[in-house]
Amino acid sequence: MNLTWTLVIFAVVMILIWRFLGSYLAAVYEGRVRYLRFVEGPIYRLIGVDPEVEQSWQRYAGSVISYSAVAILVVYGMLRLQGSLPLNPQHLGAVGPALSWNTAISFLTNTNWQAYSGESTMSYLSQMGALAVQNFASASVGIAVAIALVRGFARRGSPTIGNFWVDLVRGVVYVLLPISLVAAVIFIGQGAIQTFAGPVTIHDALNHVTQVIPRGPFGSQEAIKQLGTNGGGTYNANGATPFENPTAFTNFLSIVLLLAIPFALTYTFGKMVGSFRQGVSVVAAMIILFGAWVAMGEIAEHGTNPAIAKAGLTFQPGGNVEGKEVRFGVSDSIFYNVASTQTSTGSVDAANDSLTPIGGFTVLTGMMLGEVSPGGTGSGLYTILLFAIITVFIGGLMVGRTPEFLGKKIQSKEVKLAALGVLIMPIVVLMLTGIAVSIHAGRVGPLNHGPHGFTEILYAFTSMANNNGSAFAGLNANTAFYNVAGGIAMLLGRFVVMIPCLAMAGVLAAKQAVPASVGTFKTDTPMFTGLLLGVILIVGALTFFPAVSLGPIVEQLLSRKFF
Amino acid sequence: MLVQIRRAVVISVIFFLLLGLAYPAVETLVGNVFFSHQAGGSLTANGSTLVGQQWTGPKWFQGRDDPDNPGATGSANWGPRSEAFVKILEARIYLLRSEGITPTADLVTGSGSGVDPDISPADAYAQAAAVAKANGLSHGVVRRLIASQVVGSQFGFLGNSYVNVLQLNEALARLH
Hints:
The complex is a heterodimer of chains A (563) and B (176).
Chain A: H1 2-29, H2 37-47, H3 57-80, H4 97-108, H5 118-121, H6 124-154, H7 164-190, E1 200-204, E2 209-213, H8 219-227, H9 248-272, H10 276-301, H11 306-310, H12 329-342, H13 357-368, H14 379-399, E3 404-405, E4 408-409, H15 412-438, H16 440-443, H17 450-465, H18 480-510, H19 526-557
Antiparallel strand pairs in A: 1-2, 3-4
Chain B: H1 2-34, H2 36-39, E1 43-44, E2 47-48, H3 83-98, H4 105-108, E3 118-119, H5 121-135, H6 139-149, E4 150-151, E5 162-164, H7 165-175
């Protein structure tokens, strides 16, 4: 009954967010809202940008890369120098080179893969000034690229696709910062920790236990971690830690925040290309995938945990409670983890590693479909638009005519760019997993044995190449091999999708519209939604079915074996 | 390209000041004015209600089978078909039975955070008889004590009802 009410209220809240945040985002990126001029104006003057001057796709992409390269160096430098910098009450030393490289790339690419434990590795300055800054910036970069691609569809014969610096600043100033300011207060009011006072030592006179409790200004980071689909926790246990996610209400709020922008951007898309129905046909595909995966996860986790049953406790009325928090319960825990792996958030409020085999299959394959249901802030929209281009191409092949999408002819260049953007992720995942299981440095990583250990490795590279950042956390990933290989996976998974998207935006923006004829395949219909779903599922299944068979599927089928 | 890199450097400084320092500073100020108890870590005289502790039964109510180390949070990450995990569970079930407690799924397993401060009401009631006997209290008194500590689902539909182990044991200590 609780779950039914949760889902009903969730649906109402999401519809309101989709409609109103979606149209607000369109107004922000079309430059129609200006009430924070006094904040953005001085920023443009300081960086020497005229907000009225737009960029070609090449210059836009160059700006994305310039900002990203500088940001990697800044984060890397701050982590390496941590021991000499202020706001470090635990006197933590410098972060090692391999881990700093991995972490800098991880936060810059919106992945937030964490091969470290926050409470024993990162100072307050590193958390706030290095990592949380990238939580804002990487999310804003993602939205900027998605908006640039949407402008490509919306414009006719235009040499430019917008100004990256303006999009970056407006995303932060008008969207991410105001919502975070409010959400963080709710988190703190519910119990999220927010103090500069350093760790506290408390002795319990009742049971003679003495605890040293690390504290920090983390409620503020929690808000943007969810809203920006980043997912990087300040504590090792991430959203399971009561100091990050204190109540069932903050758990619900987290789910809403992390889905808000990815879903709302489909409304923005429809509004900016002048077709409400086009936005609906895309969001419908997202909702169907999201709903199916939530259902699969809920059913799996309300089953029994085989290890607990084997140990003699067959009565498990609540479902599989290992690795889950009592205050959330099984239903809300798996809902959060599915939402977090279907977006590129990757924060967890329960241990993915301890899910049932089908529960593990759910979180793993949610990422393998390319993070499009609804995906990350911006990355979800631009990735599903790549799939949409593949879909109209296949639709065009079926009827034997040049495909069109939103009045733009889709020719060989566009299809090549879309195929590159869609295929880079599976290539990276499968090749790096193959390397990891073939060499000693990769095989020493997993905690669990048998197929579950293989899933830990496969999950790690799937998570990093999709810029998700969640983990089957039994894997010991803080090794030179996993840090370096993971860094490469995250960079490729981010920029080899982004750059083709910007190139596509440039090519499409320059084109004139062709008038629709009777032969035009309509892309704002349920038929299109169905075809799009088919393409996403077939691409995902063809690329990953063999690998997944060796992991969760065989683990489920070997129902009496333990490893 | 050099122009873009100069812009990237300047905006990194601006973001550091605005998002990295000003934003958390404002939130800390607001948090400490309006929610100083929560912002400081929900501390009581004996610990934090948001950080689990090791309690030895049956004199005290016990929580989840967690390490309860706030300096190293995280789940044990045992897979659902791990032989090593089965052995740990069997030992825990044996220990609880030897203390006169009927094992429940929450009490024999670990949590996601490794510092779960709560148990379900059913987990608390499962310990009631053993706790009452060890403390020389009547069964009814202990059951009423548990009932007074139960927190229901938030707003009636979010999450599960639970009992905070630290608050329950502090209430138990006050009975003496």
